[in-house]
Structures are given as C-alpha cells and as structure tokens.
Amino acid sequence: MKIKNYITPLLVASSLGLISMSGYAAPMNAESKSTINTVSVNQHKGKGKILAIDKKAQKIKLAHGPIKSLNWGAMKMFFAVENKDLVDEVKVGDTVNFSFIKSNDGRFIIVDMN
Ligand SMILES: [Cu+2]
C-alpha cells in the first residue's frame, strides 16, 4: 500500500491549486462570501403604550398591539431594553414604535424605540 502515500499528497496539492485558481478566476467571490458571513438577526416591530418603567433593571412594560412577525396578538408584557439611554428617553403613558429581537436565552430586547 505504499502507493497511497504518493497519491494523497498529490490530491491535496491539486485541490489546493483548484481552490486558489477559482479564487483568482472569480473576483465576485469576495462579495458572495461576505453575504454568507453576514449574521442576520430577526428584528420585530411593534407599537405600544408604556405602562411601567424599571430604570434599574432596564426594563419597560408595554401594552403592545399585534406583532405579525411573531404571530402575537395584543398583550401587556415586559421587555428588556438594550440601551440605557432608550429607557431615559421615554415616560409612562408614551406611545412608542419599537423594534426588538429575541435573544438566544429567550428574552425580548428592545433595540430601538421612538
Ligand atoms: Cu407581547
């Protein structure tokens, strides 16, 4: 089985050659690679009225309308707020449009609000 030792390095060398050749031949590769690497986070949008603000915990309670992207009806619930400044910009009774994400550990976090 000594022949195998010669074949393997040859295959590796030729496949490496193929990879670098296709890299040069297709300049658009860089573009498609960056598309693949882009991390897409699902952002949801809603509208709601602020019922309570917990500045310390950086949370707000909203009475929000239906959120289609999550199949949610209207409800009252707490959201975490990503940025402390966002919490400071609102007060109880305000009606806000907000964008939020679902974190990996299942929390709903507002990333934008106005
Ligand atoms: Cu809800």
Describe this structure in words.
Helices cover 33% and strands 34% of the residues. It has 3 helices and 5 strands; from the N terminus they run ααβββαββ. It has helices spanning 2-25, 29-37, 84-88, and strands at residues 43-54, 59-64, 75-81, 95-102, 108-113. The termini are far apart. Bound molecules: copper (II) ion.
Present the secondary structure layout.
Blueprint: H1 2-25, H2 29-37, E1 43-54, E2 59-64, E3 75-81, H3 84-88, E4 95-102, E5 108-113
Parallel strand pairs: 3-5
Antiparallel strand pairs: 1-2, 1-4, 2-3, 4-5
Give a quick set of tags describing it.
114 residues, alpha+beta, OB fold (Dihydrolipoamide Acetyltransferase, E2P), 2 domains, 5-stranded mixed barrel, 5 strands, 33% helix, binds copper (II) ion
Gross morphology? globular
Bound molecules: copper (II) ion
The strand count comes to 5
Helical residue percent? 25-40%
Strand order of the largest sheet: 1-2-3-5-4
